[in-house]
Amino acid sequence: MTYDRDRIEALLDEGVRDKVYPGAVWAVGDATGVLAQGATGVLDPDEPDVPMRTDTVFDAASLTKILAVWSSIGALWEDGTLDLDQPLGAFWSEVAGHPLAAVTAQQLLTHTAGVPLRAQLKNLYGTKPEEIRRGVLREQLHRAPGEAVEYTDRAALILGYLAEHLSGQPLDQLATTRAWHPLGMASTRFGPLPADLAARCAPTELDQDTDTHLKGVAHDFSARLLGGVCGIAGVFTVVDDLAAFLRYMLAPATSSWRAGFGSKWATCSLTKQTGDLQPARGLFWHPAPGTTAEEEVWVHYGFTGTGMWISPIDGRWAVLLTNKLYYSRDRELLNGVRNAFRKLAFT
């Protein structure tokens, strides 16, 4: 199995020229480490002399669902603290007697729980974190659990609350102690970022209130509303930290690192868990667009322009980090770049 570094660089350079994103950072590797990585473009178009670098910090957006929630839930599952198939109401008093009581963690992880599709936290519950939590955990279901696969941010928000309940720790502390610190992910953390890290953070969307691009503050409104920490989004990271995370996922048993989750969780998660329902899902991960079941390339994306892929069958992982949101919310152009990058990384 090979990859074509020259073609990857040409592809990502073209994305800069076409203003798909101001800049991009990428890496390809296996269980032994990074095979190749690079950066192209600029950190901020307003500062054209400052290049994008491999240590640039990115707003991970929905990669938070993997880095914080998926890893924490996996640790609790491998500890024996959580039964994925037990209805939440059987052991979680906050949801007992409410519609969410009939839902399982497995259904939340496969996006088949039937919870509402949009967050709309402020509109529905106000601005106080405790009232938002209460409202989310008591909300009516959108449809019957197990009926359909429908991606929703609320699945990760609820699982983040569940992880906090079971561990007795805030989500940021739990993720740090069970995943990020053990794996040496020193630059991964929830925002808002301190000034030194914010200075090398890729800016995202223009904030209408300040007329400046968000930098070191989560783009996701739900994350900002909840003080920066929630299951939906809010994590900031760098390519080397994601490389450490994915490298560990490929071979936990032989790794010198020991996160809270291991090979059992990774194998279970990177296996189709949705039966005949479409689109197919593992546990939070899903098959990469344009791949076959035999290829077994799994992916998770972030709205800001981030993405990471992993293929246990090929022993390969890849990361592409961009701040495409600086220019546009339109996903079409970036989707083309992502799919082409994946093909080159897993050729």
Automatic annotation (TrEMBL):
<dbReference type="Pfam" id="PF00144">
    <property type="entry name" value="Beta-lactamase"/>
</dbReference>
<dbReference type="InterPro" id="IPR050789">
    <property type="entry name" value="Diverse_Enzym_Activities"/>
</dbReference>
<feature type="domain" description="Beta-lactamase-related">
    <location>
        <begin position="9"/>
        <end position="334"/>
    </location>
</feature>
<dbReference type="InterPro" id="IPR001466">
    <property type="entry name" value="Beta-lactam-related"/>
</dbReference>
<dbReference type="InterPro" id="IPR012338">
    <property type="entry name" value="Beta-lactam/transpept-like"/>
</dbReference>
<keyword id="KW-0378">Hydrolase</keyword>
<protein>
    <submittedName>
        <fullName>Beta-lactamase</fullName>
    </submittedName>
</protein>
